[in-house]
Design brief:
mainly alpha
């Protein structure tokens, strides 16, 4: 056996002399060459394109009373075809066709599989037709096994051969469908796997040996949680039980997708299969329930984690804080915050960000209540400042949340300061930030005339760099110019956006919203749009703007300076004005407002 392996290795390396040397060593050791020995020598000679030596070792095997197996003839035909030697291929096929029916079936099946493993469906079809012309009957099992025994290859080649087999009048069975689905999974083609599973289901041939674990893991790997759930349900319907590790992956994906019911179900399945949940798993379960607003369930999993000794880090505490803030219970939220401090846990940047977001969400619950609103905005500002004092650089989303809170309170100077801080931190503001400035202007205490002048400058400078307005920009325009909304939209070239916005407002009144999405691009009204989000609805829904197209703060500051000085020029100044200058100008406007109102 060892010498046969050495001969086979030499044959694969196209080293005929060494193959013959190992064959001679076999005889010198008193060993009798067997069928494999001669088969390897024939393949070695064929690999070296030595037709004479191939024929010699074939004849030598027969002289020694050793029959040549069907697989060997198939390999000789395959190699001759690959070398473009159709004459040699025909010669060896005729020798193979002289065998009995079983021998012919084995030869044809092996030959077809050799071609299909190289995705050469054309050659496979040609030899199938040649076999039929030679009067060799192709039984159903032979063609089925050409699919089932394939080593792999592309899904397309597999489908082509599958269709060829079906055209021969052969009905596919469960193993065939299973093989095609398995090929799709190996290639990472979830769509093809779905299609072939549906074909198998329609034909009533669901593969009993299908590895549902692999398909579920593939769906999770490409981020398709819904497909993973669907395949898990199919596995259960087929009486299959997934591995505990797969249920663990499903649990993690459910938490990421905020699927609370799914997360609990996967948890039960995983634990039943012997899966040991970690502190990370408990933290994810707490966070998922908190994000969905189920405070009771979040507290249940918090206590479960504490009982299991798996309560690690500050994340579970912050999840509880945010859950209560979303419910409008600030007292209970701050109790949990105190508990985390008593536990000696330190805040990291993610903790500060979560608190900023949580307080902002709390403010959203009480937008109509000035007392709660002021308290929440104060907490947002305090937490933001604490983050900076702790040595953390706030991410852009946190700047946006703080700016949003000030915008809804009409604090234009504070919103401008947030924008200035962003630029100083090297962050590039986009349409979202400038829309917040417009909204802050609309909510400020400026007179109608002053609002219009400031907003006109802000809007003009913003659209020069960001030609696609955000929903909040249109909302601000409507608030500033309630009676001239259409006129202003035409003036700034926003007619298409206005039409779409009006459609969304009508849909809102009818409670018939389209799906999630963004407004279409300007001058393309043929696209079907879906509901945009107002700044109140989601402070984190921000349209990204290329860095090269972001407007500079000095243009906005210039707009304010022109209004205050009564200038009519629309050109930005060459020198950038500081935030203090801007605040001075806003203070001057405020004093004029106070004087005019007594």
């Amino acid at each position: 056996e060892c010498l046969n392996m050495l001969i086979a290795t030499a044959a694969k390396c196209q080293d005929l002399p060494n193959a013959e040397r190992w064959f001679a060593s076999m005889k010198e050791c008193g060993l009798t060459p067997d069928q494999k020995s001669f088969s390897h020598l024939m393949v070695a000679a064929a690999n070296c394109r030595d037709a004479a030596m191939t024929q010699y070792w074939h004849d030598e095997a027969l002289r020694n009373g050793i029959s040549v197996e069907a697989e060997s003839y198939a390999m000789l035909v395959y190699l001759a075809e690959r070398q473009g030697n159709r004459e040699q291929a025909q010669h060896w096929s005729e020798a193979a066709f002289q065998g009995d029916g079983s021998f012919q079936s084995d030869f044809l099946r092996t030959l077809l599989c050799n071609f299909l493993d190289e995705e050469d469906v054309t050659s496979a079809k040609r030899w199938l037709a040649k076999a039929e012309q030679s009067g060799i009957g192709v039984d159903l099992d032979t063609l089925r096994r050409t699919i089932v025994r394939r080593k792999g290859g592309s899904v397309k080649a597999m489908e082509n051969w599958f269709n060829c087999v079906e055209k021969s009048g052969i009905k596919a069975n469960a193993p065939i469908f299973g093989k095609v689905i398995d090929a799709a999974v190996k290639k990472g083609d979830l769509k093809a796997a779905e299609e072939w599973y549906q074909k198998a289901d329609d034909a009533g041939c669901i593969p009993s040996e299908l590895r549902f674990d692999k398909v579920v893991k593939l769906a999770l790997r490409i981020g398709n949680y819904k497909a993973a759930k669907r395949w898990e349900e199919r596995a259960v319907a087929s009486g299959k039980v997934l591995l505990p590790s797969v249920y663990g992956e499903l649990l993690s994906s459910a938490c990421e997708a905020a699927d609370a019911s799914g997360a609990e179900r996967w948890y039960q399945e995983a634990v039943a299969g012997g899966f040991t949940p970690s502190a990370t798993v408990y933290s994810a379960l707490i966070s998922t329930q908190a994000r969905t607003g189920n405070v009771e369930a979040a507290e249940f999993w918090f206590n479960q984690a504490r009982t299991a000794g798996m309560l690690e880090g500050i994340s579970p505490y912050i999840s509880m804080v945010c859950a209560h803030l979303c419910k409008g219970n600030i007292a209970e939220a701050e109790r949990w915050l105190t508990d985390s401090e008593e536990a000696g846990l330190k805040f990291d940047m993610d903790t500060y960000s979560a608190l900023i977001d949580g307080y902002a969400r709390y403010a959203r619950v009480f937008w109509a209540d000035d007392g709660h609103k002021d308290k929440a905005v104060a907490r947002v500002t305090e937490t933001f400042e604490a983050m900076k004092a702790a040595g953390f650089e706030p991410p852009q989303n946190d700047h946006r949340v703080v700016m949003l809170c000030h915008a809804h309170r009409g604090h234009l100077h504070e919103a401008m300061r947030c924008l200035d801080e962003m630029e100083e931190a090297g962050l590039k503001p986009g349409m979202s930030e400038y829309s917040r400035l417009l909204y802050a202007c609309s909510m400020s205490d400026l007179s109608s005339e002053q609002k219009e002048e400031v907003a006109r400058q802000l809007l003009r400078q913003t659209l020069q760099e960001c030609p696609e307005p955000a929903w909040s920009a249109l909302t601000a325009i409507r608030k500033i110019w309630p009676n001239r909304y259409s006129e202003i939209c035409r003036e700034f070239g926003l007619e298409d956006w206005q039409v779409k916005a009006d459609e969304f407002l009508k849909a809102k009144r009818a409670d018939n919203w389209p799906g999630q999405g963004q407004l279409p691009k300007k001058a393309n009204t043929s696209r079907v749009s879906s509901r945009p989000k107002s700044p109140i609805e989601d402070q984190r829904d921000v349209s990204e703007v290329p860095a090269s197209s972001v407007p500079q703060t000095e243009t906005i500051l210039a707009a304010l300076s022109h209004v205050s000085a009564g200038k009519q020029s629309r050109k930005p100044p060459e020198k950038r004005r500081s935030t203090n200058q801007t605040l001075d100008l806003l203070q001057e406007i405020g004093e004029q407002l106070d004087a005019s109102s007594g």
